[in-house]
Amino acid sequence: MKNISQIIKQLTLMLAICAVVFSCTDKLEENDGQLAADDLDFTNSDDMILPLIGSYSAVYSRGWEDPLLIGVRGDDVNAGGLGDQPQFADTDLFIYDNGFWMYNQIWENFYGDIVKIVSSRETIQSYKDFAIEDEDLDKADQYMAECKVLSGFTHFQMSRLWGDIFIIGTSDITAELDKGVKTKAEVMQYISDLMDEAIPFLPDARPNERQDVSGGVTKYTALAIKALANLELENYQAVADVTGEIINSSKFNLYPDFYDLFKKEGERSNENLFELQFSDYGTESGAENSHEYGPFGPSNWTPVVAGASEGWGFYEPSLKFIKFMLDRGETTRLITSVNFTPRGIAEITSDPAYATLPSFVSNVTPDGDIFNDYSRAKFASGKHYLPSIDLTPGRTRYGSGKNLIVIRYAEILLMYAEALTQGASGSAGSADQAVNVVRARVGLPALSGVTTDDVMDEKFAELAMEWGVRYFDMIRLNKYEELSYEGRTFTAEDELLPYPQAQLDLLPLDNN
Questions:
Q1: Of 16, 140, 186, 288, which one has the fewest beta carbons inside 10 Å?
Q2: What's the structural domain count of the chain?
Q3: What pLDDT digit, counting tens, does each position of 67-84 carry?
């Protein structure tokens, strides 16, 4: 079985590359040199997987700023990073500066990925044009379908941030830009339709069941992205139908240990429908493919493994979230989601209502790492924390080699439950049943007569710090009062980020 990260290593990160205005038929980057399209042998079907791996690598190689900006405006997360990147902290307060480098960088990150993915798909089509064997034809259809799923994911993230965006469906970038920006509703419908195009050609399996590329996207990844797009459209019947299909497949289940789910033990588990995969290949040095987890980590800690690097302190669970979890009697999900410092604990107990905390609230993690006080934040995200004892010997970077989960089965269950509370009919049980599966894992009692508010509370507890789920739920439901917390005031005008000034200077965007 091939692991995507291993393939990327073997290919020395061979990508189907194209700059924003170039087609992949112009050039492919191989190792440190350039391989012209004329040098490709499209009759060699064994190489057809290479542009596909290029698409995965483009999506996996996320900038550290991407998940931070996507999630920071929710009431589950505060910016942290105090004393550095003030415009990031301002964004958390709904004060937007379209000249902030991070906005433009993320715009370029996602659109760069989209163009690479589209170009990879067209390169695979070229291989298909020369294919003779049915097996090769089927592979080409599958690989192109996988590219569509990855393209859907990237368009989805961009449209949630900016609303109206360009849809890039071909490598003729000029023609695509000439079509102008599409509304958020049009983008979400495009994504839903694109998933419908892809699904018939994708493996009917969990990602961890794939024998060709372990952890790669499958039919169920596409269904999940389709459900997310329709949730944004508030097409709740479609959400119920799609999530119900995933549930009724009986292929997925919740990972038994919520804490370990976000550590290396939970990688490519039966719960994960889509995750960004990384690896240091179990070696002390040399090639590695790792996400930069530094922004999520503490800038002062005492790790069990001496020499393990500290983080930057840029992503802080909110005090509102912590108190919400304490009020619910949460233990497992709170310990998993939040790493405490002494200063943070003192901040909690300064409120008379929380003067006495449960004994599990500690600045020592279950794995023995000690989070000391540091100036940039009072808490750190536990879901992005890798215990120092889990680092490969010789690797010291914070979170080195840890995967980044994007979509998991718990979210599918809760989307299904919400759709039913919003009036949709379901084929995979009741909303109560779906919510209670999620609650049972962490030892919480069952609920009956579940409402939309109950589901939102469960999503808050279950999915905090994950890809802005909380923020986008609140703006979809117009729950502005939830986002107006700790001195913030949120209005409808704050929902979307402004287009980056650097893009307004280049492209015919409407900044209204």
A1: 186
A2: 2
A3: 999 999 999 999 988 889
